[in-house]
Amino acid sequence: MKTIDFAGTGAQISSLCLGCMYLGTKTDQETSYALLDLYHERGGRFLDTSNNYAFWVNGRRGGDSESLIGRWMKERRNRGEIFLATKVGARPTAPGAGLEAAEGLTAKAIARAVDESLSRLGTDHIDLYYAHIDQRTTPLEETLEALDGLVRQGKVRHLGCSNMATWRIAEARTLSRLKGWAPYRCVQQWHSYLRPRPGTGGIEVPAAGFTFQLNVDDELLDYCKSNKDFTIVAYSPLLLGAYARADRPLPEKFLGADADARLRALESVAKETGRTRNQVVLAWLRQSGPAVVSIVAASTPEQLRENLGSLDLVLSEEQMRTLSEAHG
User: Fold this and answer.
1) Which positions ≥6 away from 41 have C-beta within 8 Å?
2) Chain-wide mean pLDDT for the chain?
């Protein structure tokens, strides 16, 4: 698997990231290990998890995915090969609670959470640590200073944000630069080939002061084109299986004439290349400007093999135009 430079830092990351949300919960340990082994055998080294995965499954509280990855790395003795990403901010603080009781991004919450994640992962550092949310009830300066402290302590190598509006990203990075703090190097946002309808934003959690499931928009794409030291990492690029499975309807905010037109273009290019829709979507994201690192998840090795099969697909300029210019 090819690697790319991470946001101008010199760190190398795999061009396709393995999402580990359900490892250890919906996906049992045997299957989880099979997925991790397959990804590793194909040269993949970029793992994405979070301290709250997956608290909503069977009364869990989060941390299961981190714990499983920690066990796998220990048994395979490969921690030094892995670029490991996890997150803080959206883990409920009480059993049975939801995001309204998220831990948040205060300095105290961050300090506690990072040590817990390090323990579950069985490591002394995290390569990429995300603020999982943009909690506006906590001063941005407090959050950024706390995250910078983790970098200075050696517990974290790089910082990222997630579910954050572009103007807030710009504000945060400017503040970090002025203070001499480690900056956000990437944003993890929902992004795919289909575009959400205008005016359909994320899901607000007023009690906790944040919004989640924010999509990449034109403003963010423009920001990244002008800031080469900042990268987009796309979650749910395959829309939860909707491109491939008739029993998985498109998320509501993607429905409409624009989606219909782009699905026709996608089907045309898939037939022309002899590849699946999923593979074409991943190739389009990789070849678009600015370049996007996609997170792919799978519940079976067969699904993961299909996703990895996108890596040798190079779309022609004409095929890229067909896909990019489709609209309704």
Assistant:
1) none
2) 97
> Any idea which residue has 């996007």 for tokens?
292
Q: Let me know the angle formed at the C-alpha of 10 by 160 and 218, rounded to the nearest 5 degrees.
A: 45
Residue 326 lies in a domain: no
Query: What DSSP character marks residue 241?
Result: G
- One DSSP character per residue, 95-126 reads TT--GGGB--S-HHHHHHHHHHHHHHHT-S-E
d(CA 73, CA 85): 14
Q: Which residues of 89-123 are buried (b: 16+ CB within 10 A; e: fewer)?
A: bbbbeeeeeebebbbbbbeebbeebbeebbebbeb
Which 3 state secondary structure label does DSSP give 187? Answer: strand
Within-domain flag for 65: yes
Helices 277-287 and 257-273, axial angle in degrees (round to 10): 100
CATH at residue 213: 3.20.20.100
pLDDT tens digits, 191-220: 999 999 988 889 999 999 999 999 999 999
pLDDT digits (tens, 9 = 90+) for 266-292: 999 999 999 999 999 999 999 998 989
Query: pLDDT (tens digit, 9 = 90+) per residue, 149-196?
Result: 999 999 999 999 999 999 999 999 999 999 999 999 999 999 999 999
Domains identified in the chain, total number:
1
227-255 as b/e: b if 16+ CB within 10 A: eeebbbbbbbbbbeebbeeeeeebbebbe
Whether 270 maps to a domain, the answer reads no
Residue 149 carries which DSSP code? H
Which 3 state secondary structure label does DSSP give 296? strand
Structure tokens at 170: 């710009």
Looking up tokens 């340990």 gives 29
Tell me which H or E stretch contains 128. strand 126-131
Q: Is residue 151 part of a domain?
A: yes
Closest CA to 17 of 225, 193, 221, 231: 231
Domain span including residue 157:
3-247+278-316
Task: Answer whether 0.85 is exceeded by the pTM.
Answer: yes
Average pLDDT over residues 240-264: 94
Q: Percentage of the chain surpassing pLDDT 70?
A: 100
